Amino acid sequence: QKHLLGISHLNPVEITELLDRAEAMVDISRQPRKAKHSLKGRTQINLFFENSTRTQSSFEIAGKRLGADVLNMAVQTSSVKKGETLIDTAATLNAMQPDVIVVRHAASGAVELLSQKVACSVINAGDGTHEHPTQALLDALTIRRNKGRLNGLTVAICGDIANSRVARSNLLLLGAMNARTRVVAPKNMLPTGVEHMAAEVFTDMEEGLKGADVVMMLRLQHERASGKMIPSVREFYHFYGLDERKLAFANDDAIVMHPGPMNRGVEIAPTIADGPRSVITEQVEMGVAVRMAVLEALLANGEAS
Ligand code: CP
């Protein structure tokens, strides 16, 4: 493939190949001295129109570990602030002959649109509420390393599902890999058409967590919420925040995930986030390996195909 725009464009064989490639990158991702040079002479531009800590920095580290020249476009100080459009920005960057542009944008579909306007590969680093494919891949790698498989696992994805591109990409990936998926949320945080999704739907946290192998908490996305928060943050934590009492409903060996950034005391108790069942730090670590794998898969074999 030339681009990675979403999990919806990948089949189970391609997902498995990327996870296997990422697994083989884990050692290298941890040790700069073992860096590979498969992207030597290639240029990677990171173009983030929305804030990011994990995704942008791990894409930068991933590109550098593979020997690419990496440029982080400072959107806040770019001509975007003078009114330059997404398409004109893309055309300008395209004229500098990059090999890959990694894009995050607040509008669903913006990354796909940009991919149609440039000659190079494009990777979706999160577009609106649509998809965040490398997050789903790093989540899958983390689950596979802890549970040995994806097939047949029960994964409960909890919280602000409607606004979450992470949930959407995870549901697509986990469904493709034959995991059993659940969404757990108050009614107003479930997406329209949830009944057509290949996931069991729960509005009660205890019911939704019963028998879960993986509990994936999501960030409450105030910036995408329209109007007043209902329930209030306090009510949300009471009914849906993951604490010791609610986690006891999941399987004894269930792991706890969160894509970050976390609102501690809102969707997750600090004791759980930092506790023995949390794999949140490992998720961040796997982000570098997965992004190395994606960059190499798209670029390493001569021209992107
Ligand atoms: N999980 C995630 O996308 O984090 P950032 O917003 O920090 O990149």
From TrEMBL:
Binding site for L-aspartate: 82, 165, 219
Positions that bind carbamoyl phosphate: 54-55, 104, 132, 135, 260-261
Annotated pathway: Pyrimidine metabolism; UMP biosynthesis via de novo pathway; (S)-dihydroorotate from bicarbonate: step 2/3
Domain Aspartate/ornithine carbamoyltransferase Asp/Orn-binding, residue spans: 152-297
E.C. code: 2.1.3.2
Domain named Aspartate/ornithine carbamoyltransferase carbamoyl-P binding: residues: 2-144
Record HAMAP family: Asp_carb_tr
Name of the protein this chain belongs to: Aspartate carbamoyltransferase
Organism: Maritalea myrionectae
Lineage of producing organism: Bacteria, Pseudomonadati, Pseudomonadota, Alphaproteobacteria, Hyphomicrobiales
